Amino acid sequence: MDSRAVRSFRAFVVMAATVAIVLGVVAVVWPRPSLVLVALVFGVYLVVSGVMRVVAAVRGHGTPAVWRWTSGVVGGLVGVAGLVTLLDPAIPLLAYAVLAGVAFLAEGVAALVGGFVGHPGSSRLPTVVSGVLSIIGGIVVLVAPGLALTVFTVFSGIALVVVGAAALLLLPPRAAMRR
């Protein structure tokens, strides 16, 4: 690989790692504002995506009417979801947390059933323990969805810092680029 390509790759890694570290620190220091910002950006995306779908449905001359109607209705619903997100970002965030809590509960119940009934290739005790922990996690998320989102954001921020730092630490030294 030529040295220019190596320098370019190195610069990309340094830039991406630095952005990851900065975003990670922001998420750890300000978890709730970070969540709200992500929700707002997502809301803008949903509004734009919904409008584009409706426009495609209206201007889709020559396409089947079923596609046009489906695209238009879906676009309208997506756009409304985006507007709801922009008006109150807490609503979709809490909805996501509640869905995650319900998913934890369902996974826990499925694991318990599998642990008690038994299924090929699994040990009963770890499966039952996994099911119980999943149910407890689901209950915690459903009881305190805001706290669950904050904890998730902080852990995600820590992961970003670790991944960014690891990328910087694993870069070959500059001397290796001259060879």
Q: Report the uncertain regions.
A: none
Cα Rg: 23 Å
Major beta sheet summary: none
Percentage of residues assigned to helices: over 70%
Number of DSSP E strands: 0
**Strand coverage percent:** under 5%
Detailed description of the structure:
There is one protein chain. The protein has 179 residues and is an all-alpha fold. Helix content is 87%, strand content 0%. The chain has seven helices and no strands. Helix 1 (3-29) packs across helix 2 and helix 2 (31-59) packs antiparallel against helix 3. The longest helix has 29 residues, at 31-59. The N and C termini lie close together (10 Å). The model has no long low-confidence stretch (mean pLDDT 89).
Provide a short characterization of the protein structure.
By secondary structure, the protein is mostly helical. 87% of the residues lie in helices and 0% in strands. It has seven helices and no strands.
Compile the SSE list and pairings.
Elements: H1 3-29, H2 31-59, H3 65-87, H4 90-117, H5 124-143, H6 145-169, H7 174-177
Brief descriptors of the model:
179 residues
